[in-house]
């Protein structure tokens, strides 16, 4: 089994769906605007937030993993300057917003939306992405759609996260930025460590063939989308865009694929994907997705741990906190 096939299986399990999404599936739980949304909790910032801080937001679909939120929040708030987070809670028990947690960032930066398990539809991740843009897109120029095990990094000292996005603002042919993965394996850890960034410092290797366009593991992308160009979430990786706009890579190269960008480059920006973490956390991930053990999932673990050359990647360990 290839990594692409294994990832597709895990993603399908995570959202308990089979088959492909269609427009009706994605929209059936949606609402027309923010005022009609239910089960939302806002932490209002009474001091106000300037336009620069509202420039970009993150939309995150999550179930139960409240323990992973503080480090993820802290990294993106303090090291990338992102000041707005929309947390789409897919039926956590109890709702994550009800827990008394120190997230390490101002609560005013966080908005929770809770989806009851009994009222959820098919392909909820894509529905959540549609809701994020429908409800809050007008507040921001860009929204990033990433997961709790994914951490953005600006890889050049000469740019900021906002600065990278602003370099595409005036190009109306650009509707989204596709960012290549940097996949991390377990580092041989059996139990959950205190810090993701400090602990998982071994990454999957990009072969020289990737310079000419290949199929290495890190050719997957996730998207940061211009809210004015958003039309639909096609899959967790790429989005429908209006007026012929395109998804491009960091160098302005057009991404034609539905999920991949080759050759892989991470000269300006990278998305660190901690796809398995420790063995304990990987097994928990499978249990969250499916109450029955699926032996095919071990192929994903085996691929990440044993079948692909690795390199040391300690750049994320420099961030403290």
Characterise the protein shown here.
One of its GO terms (cellular component) is cytoplasm. It is built from 8 helices and 14 strands. With about 325 residues, it is α/β, with parallel strands linked by helices. Strands 1, 2, 3, 4, 5, 6, 7, 9, 12 and 13 form a 10-stranded mixed β-sheet that branches. A hairpin with a 5-residue loop joins strand 10 and strand 11. It starts with a helix and ends in a 9-residue tail after the last strand.
Helical stretch count? 8
Question: In percent terms, what proportion of residues is strand?
Answer: 15-25%
Radius of gyration: 19 Å
Integer tally of domains = 1
Which architecture does the CATH hierarchy give at level 2?
Alpha-Beta Complex
What spatial form do the alpha-carbon principal axes imply? globular
Low-confidence stretches: 9-20, 22-38, 43-49, 290-296
Portion of residues in helices?
A: 10-25%
Most strands sheet: 10 strands, mixed
Overall SS class:
alpha/beta
CATH topology: Spore Coat Polysaccharide Biosynthesis Protein SpsA, Chain A
- First CA to last CA: what distance? 38 Å
Determine the mean pLDDT.
87
DSSP, total strands: 14
What is the highest CATH level, the class?
A: Alpha Beta
Summarize the helix and strand pattern as letters: HHEEHEEHEEHEHEEEEEEHHE
Membrane topology: Single-pass membrane protein
GO molecular function, one term: glycosyltransferase activity
Protein name: Glycosyltransferase family 92 protein
Keywords: Membrane, Transmembrane, Transmembrane helix
């Amino acid at each position: 089994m290839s990594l692409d096939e294994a990832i597709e299986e895990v993603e399908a399990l995570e959202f308990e769906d089979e088959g492909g999404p269609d427009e009706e599936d994605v929209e059936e739980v949606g609402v027309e605007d923010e005022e009609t949304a239910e089960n939302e909790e806002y932490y209002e910032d009474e001091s106000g937030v300037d336009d620069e801080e509202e420039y970009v937001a993150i939309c995150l679909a999550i179930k139960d993993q409240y323990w992973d939120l503080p480090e993820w929040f802290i990294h993106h708030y303090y090291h990338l300057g992102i000041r707005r987070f929309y947390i789409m809670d897919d039926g956590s028990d109890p709702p994550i917003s009800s827990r008394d947690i120190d997230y390490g960032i101002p609560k005013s930066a966080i908005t929770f939306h809770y989806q009851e398990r009994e009222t959820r539809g098919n392909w909820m991740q894509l529905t959540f992405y549609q809701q994020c843009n429908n409800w809050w897109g007008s507040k921001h120029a860009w929204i990033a759609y990433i997961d709790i095990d994914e951490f953005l990094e600006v890889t050049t000292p000469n740019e900021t996260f906002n600065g990278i996005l602003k370099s595409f603002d005036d190009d109306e042919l650009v509707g989204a930025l596709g960012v290549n993965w940097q996949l991390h394996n377990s580092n041989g850890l059996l139990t959950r460590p205190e810090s993701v960034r400090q602990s998982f410092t071994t990454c999957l290797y990009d072969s020289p063939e990737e310079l000419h366009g290949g199929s290495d593991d890190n050719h997957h992308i996730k998207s940061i989308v211009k809210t004015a160009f958003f039309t639909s979430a096609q899959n967790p990786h790429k989005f429908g865009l209006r007026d012929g706009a395109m998804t491009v890579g960091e160098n302005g190269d057009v991404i034609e694929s539905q999920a991949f960008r080759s050759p892989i480059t991470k000269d300006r920006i990278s998305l660190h994907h901690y796809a398995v973490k420790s063995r304990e956390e990987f097994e928990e991930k499978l249990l969250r997705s499916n109450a029955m053990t699926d032996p095919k999932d071990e192929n994903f673990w085996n691929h990440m741990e044993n079948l692909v050359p690795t390199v040391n990647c300690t750049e994320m360990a420099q961030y403290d906190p």
